[in-house]
């Protein structure tokens, strides 16, 4: 249980940095570049994911990072970011709601996806 708590707390700290990166890029792309929320959310996710993927591989899950794992992570979570942004565009939801809801969804789904799919084969 102690190892799981350490894993979650490290995941959360990296997640805060990831969220800051994501939100800043999202707003630059939606406001300054006038991109759709779907494109902005996906692009911001990809940049933030690059940072967090390697930090998680090194510190949170203590597993080596690979290109295949990175692409699997970006495909799954990036797809989710695009879908959330797409529905925000369709329903004309404010950008703050878009990144806030995706951040919450990303915290929950990203932890389980990372723990059980990406890094699940590591030794105990």
Main attributes of the structure:
124 residues, mainly alpha, elongated
The largest sheet is: none
Based on CA inertia axes, which overall geometry fits? elongated
* Proportion of helical residues: over 70%
**Strand-residue fraction?**
under 5%
Alpha-carbon distance between the termini?
A: 13 Å
Number of helices: 4
Mean pLDDT: 86
Helices and strands, in order, run as HHHH
How many domains, in number, for the residues?
1
Q: Supply the helix-strand structural class.
A: mainly alpha
Low-confidence stretches: none
List the helices and strands and how they pair.
Layout: H1 2-32, H2 37-60, H3 67-90, H4 95-118
Function: Involved in O antigen modification. Involved in the translocation of bactoprenol-linked glucose across the cytoplasmic membrane.
InterPro entries: Glc_translocase_bactprenl-link, GtrA_CellWall_Glycosyl, GtrA_DPMS_TM
Membrane topology: Multi-pass membrane protein
